[in-house]
């Protein structure tokens, strides 16, 4: 390696251009063989570096979303639910609702695929460059309760309000006290027309006061904000996790 090559590698490392550093020699050889112009050579290097950075950003967004596991729409078994509007779900995967700060509510019994679809939609959002956070209703309540004890509620609220898409999974599966009801109301209220919220629940809207500590006034105000710009997907059927005992 001559002095020029050594100096070039040193500068590329300092500039944090790993694609340049790794591929410049091979691309130089290809450029010489194929008589590339200087412009084309530079274009190839820059395009490679941009692609590398875009891929790294996607990896970081997916990691930050804190998925319980990665699911895609292609993996969803459309034949299992007795009722689901496939066209509606596929339209939602275009993610137009994110640009309008719209919300999505997935309603259905246990095991019909609500969480799978929530993950698939959120993963698609990450791939398209949007920030997201996947959590459960109980985790939000517990985290905010712990933050209140340490004076960190404001910081935690910023974490919940900031993402383009927030998923609140399993709303209604466990009882929520007054603090929890107020906390979830504050999260949804602060995200209203600022970001999109996706909620999965096993309870019909008429039963939501029971989720929110039997506070009909709070529930009505929450639904007013949540449903103002929202699409509701109703899924009916048996639990997919029980398919093997049923089929055997």
Automatic annotation (TrEMBL):
Matching CDD domains: AAA (cd00009)
Coiled-coil positions: none
Keyword field: ATP-binding, Nucleotide-binding
Biological process per Gene Ontology, one example term: DNA replication
Record-given protein name: Putative Insertion sequence IS21 ATP-binding protein
Domain of life: Bacteria
Pfam family, one: IstB_IS21
Gene3D superfamilies: P-loop containing nucleotide triphosphate hydrolases
Domain IstB-like ATP-binding: 12-245
Organism listed in the record: Candidatus Accumulibacter aalborgensis
GO molecular function: ATP binding
């Amino acid at each position: 390696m001559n002095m020029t090559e050594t100096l070039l590698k040193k500068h590329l490392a300092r500039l944090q251009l790993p694609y340049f550093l790794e591929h410049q020699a091979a691309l130089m050889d290809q450029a010489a063989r194929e008589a590339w112009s200087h412009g084309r050579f530079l274009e190839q290097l820059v395009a490679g570096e941009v692609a590398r950075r875009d891929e790294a950003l996607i990896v970081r967004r997916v990691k930050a979303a804190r998925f319980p596991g990665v699911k895609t729409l292609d993996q969803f078994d459309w034949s299992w639910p007795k009722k689901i509007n496939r066209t509606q779900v596929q339209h939602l995967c275009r993610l137009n609702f994110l640009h309008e700060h719209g919300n999505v509510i997935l309603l259905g019994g246990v095991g019909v695929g609500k969480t799978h679809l929530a993950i698939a939609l959120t993963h698609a959002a990450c791939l398209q460059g949007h920030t997201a956070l996947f959590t459960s209703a109980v985790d939000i309540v517990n985290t905010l309760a712990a933050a209140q004890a340490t004076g960190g509620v404001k910081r935690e609220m910023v974490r919940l309000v900031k993402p383009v898409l927030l998923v609140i999974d399993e709303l209604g599966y466990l009882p929520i006290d007054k603090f929890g009801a107020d906390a979830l109301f504050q999260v949804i209220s602060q995200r209203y027309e600022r970001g999109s919220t996706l909620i999965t629940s096993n309870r019909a809207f008429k039963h939501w006061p029971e989720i929110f500590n039997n506070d009909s006034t709070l529930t009505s105000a929450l639904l007013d904000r949540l449903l103002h710009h929202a699409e509701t997907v109703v899924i009916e059927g048996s639990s997919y996790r029980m398919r093997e005992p049923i089929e055997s």
